[in-house]
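Handout for the seminar on molecular recognition.
Each group receives one record of this type.
Step one: identify the two inputs.
Step two: read the structure output and locate the region that could contact inosinic acid.
Step three: write two sentences on what you found, then compare them with the reference statements printed after the record.
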Amino acid sequence: MAVDLLLGLQWGDEGKGKIVDVFTSKYDIIARFQGGPNAGHTLVFNGQKHVLHTIPSGIFHDNTINIVGNGVVIDPVIFKKELEKLDAQKVPYQKSLVISRKAHIILPTHRLLDAASETSKGKAKIGSTLKGIGPTYMDKTGRNGIRVGDLELADWKLKYRALANKHEALIAFYNVDVQYNLDELEAEFFEAVKTLKSLQFIDSEEYIYQAQQQGKTILAEGAQGSLLDIDFGTYPFVTSSNTTAAGACTGLGIPPSAIGDVFGIFKAYTTRVGSGPFPTELFDEYGETMGRVGNEFGATTGRARRCGWLDLVALKYACQINGVTQLIMMKGDVLSGFDMLKVCTAYKYKGDTITHLPYNIEAENIKPIYSEFKGWQADLTGMSKGEELPQELNDYIAFLEQELNIPITIVSVGPDRKQTIVR
Ligand code: IMP
């Protein structure tokens, strides 16, 4: 069976968790392939909100296997907290949650290094979630990392000590004020490693291969968004993994020829948390309304997200890079009551009009060119059928489908599982 992918097409926070949860009943396996606890995937059902950071969003369904793939970085301390929340809700994850031996471990000193690096950058900081993501991927590519499989070796703590010592020397090199008590952090870390070791570790690429041979259906769950991709995002204001479709191949060990549908998720407007360019960012009451009505605060850090109009140039780019086959539009309900809406269809770039994402999208180089649309007034949150959607929203959707040449097959009209319209 082909492996389907579900990816964010903007700067993250598109609503991937909700849609994975909605899709899970159609899949035997949900697999995370990159990122780590910098992600915050929010699911709402039965009137309750759940936020997952590292654990795949299929965990609340019986009979679904959830794989944390080799491309993911795991912080045992945060992972343990996630498990404790599942325990409190009596979610039986012992059999349904498995972890790749090749996934890398975030050490307490990776988090400290992240903080030291960000502090040293001053105003040029990335706006990292400070979960140690960048330093952990640096150790992975630098061939120094500790992997989940290492935890099964008798002498892994020697390797740990050598790496932590190196990190402490690096933290001192930054020469910035980072306060910490490593003994305390280590006590918490080693305790959490014990919890992690109580779970099932697997050779995930083999597991996934065998599952495919047996005809099992698999959905790969992306984290962050395409514009935060280490190669194709707005570098250096990006995360440290490949968030795009290719990342699913390397992050799970699936060949490109095995990929089936690529579901691309986007919000009806745009948000970004952290630093970096954002051509359609709004500083007026339209942006303020998006943030307030859309509850645009980071699920991991609580930071207010920056809001702006939909950027079709960037969205087209993301669809192209990922080979998106179906689109899912989120949060159209947040725009109810707007008198008008804008969509950026091109950029004025150094005097020219362009319709592709150039190397540098800093504000001084780029001016968005907009098309304007009539807004819709109806409250969408109680709607359940495509026929109920207001004409103005249908016009907006039709325009996007025509420009992107990809069908929008799902429109989400609220955070709950049930607020999902299949077109
Ligand atoms: P890091 O991945 O924590 O180092 O953060 C790098 C950049 O990616 C920062 O601008 C973060 O705000 C952003 N970022 C990381 N993870 C997420 C996410 O899950 N949603 C939205 N933005 C994210």
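Reference statements: Residues 11-13, 38-40, 126-129, 131, 133-134, 223-224, 228, 237, 239, 273-274 surround inosinic acid (CB under 6 Å). The first strand starts at residue 3 and ends at 8.
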